[in-house]
Amino acid sequence: MTSTLIEGIGLLVTNDPEIGPLTAELNNAAVVVEDGLISWVGESSAAPDADSRIDAEGRCVIPGFVDSHSHLVFAGDRSDEFEAHMTGQKYAAGGIRRTVGLTRAASDADLAANTAHLVAEMRAQGTTTVEIKSGYGLSTIDESRSLAIAGQFTDETTYLGAHVVPEEFSDDPAGYVELVTGEMLDACAPRARWIDVFCDDGAFDIDQARTILEAGQARGLGARMHAGQLGPSEGVKLAVELGAASVDHCTFLGDDDVDALASGSTVATVLPGVEFSTRQPYPDARRLIDAGATLAIASDCNPGSCFTSSMPFCIALAVREMHLSPAEAVWAATAGGAKALWRDDVGVVAVGKKADLVILDAPSYVHLAYRPGVPLIHRVI
Q1: Each residue's pLDDT tens digit, 309-343
Q2: What class, spelled out in words, does domain 65-340 have in CATH?
Q3: Which CATH code fits 3-64+347-380?
Q4: Which of 238, 230, 231 is nearest to 256 (CA)?
Q5: Mean pLDDT, to the nearest integer, of 301-311?
Q6: Helices 140-150 and 96-105 meet at what angle, rounded to 10?
Q7: The whole model's pTM is what?
Q8: Within the chain, which residue ranges are assigned CATH 3.20.20.140?
């Protein structure tokens, strides 16, 4: 085995509860990596020898970002919709169907090339783990091929045949639910780890969402849910009831929703780039944390409601607009994202974990919010 010593770390964010609460920081630290895993963490003065060295030169090192919600397999552009949102048009789920038509018409090669481009963008901005959903095919063949393409880039693939009802089923939504839970699920389950459903106005109601998620769980898929984005939704409590890993958006929450998230294991994933891009109100993430819920931050990178691949940008928004501390936001974008994917091998710097590390071109992670829009990723390991 070969080993690498990363030394000269001015500030190390470990997120390791055995070291301390929340970001569990170490000063003047070092990390040893052996064959892709962390084998030692501690003070630089006590670091063991290694085959090679990387000098962080006093910079801050954090775990790689874990982006637990993205839609990267698509074709086309919807910048005109963004412009409309900026001039007062309310966001609605219907724009998804526009991307569906463009994605169905695209070749596998073109879809894979676009996905690769976006994954590379994410990596350059510090994301080392990404979840990728289908959802722009909405036919058996197109959902299946979308997941096959997503699987080229991540093991965290999500079947989202229940994104919206496609135009050809506009008069038969029940028939589409049968397709999603039948033939389409048969084709997609072998290529997915998760099943998701958009439970909101213009998408799927609570009964349809239950049917879809339970069908996926019966096939061994973990459950996820889009809920509470466009208005209050019973979907949040349904996600908790079904033991979903995460319920995402959480823009409109009632007291019962917050209590359910605080008492269960389902992670509340907020997507601040969406509110930036649609002019909707930001989720009350402060309220969720204070109630005891587990919070994750993700990008929701997609061509319609949020076309950003930047987790640092989402962190800055969460600090400025959602009233999180920089430490809370960084934890949510790393360890929180890992919890939203039922992962304990990423999002933390500890012995035996994956050596997914980001060296910031800054002395502290606070600069991710303090210097918004500035490229602060010095190196991704």
Answers
A1: 999 999 999 999 999 999 999 999 999 999 999 99
A2: alpha beta
A3: 2.30.40.10
A4: 238
A5: 96
A6: 80
A7: 0.97
A8: 65-340
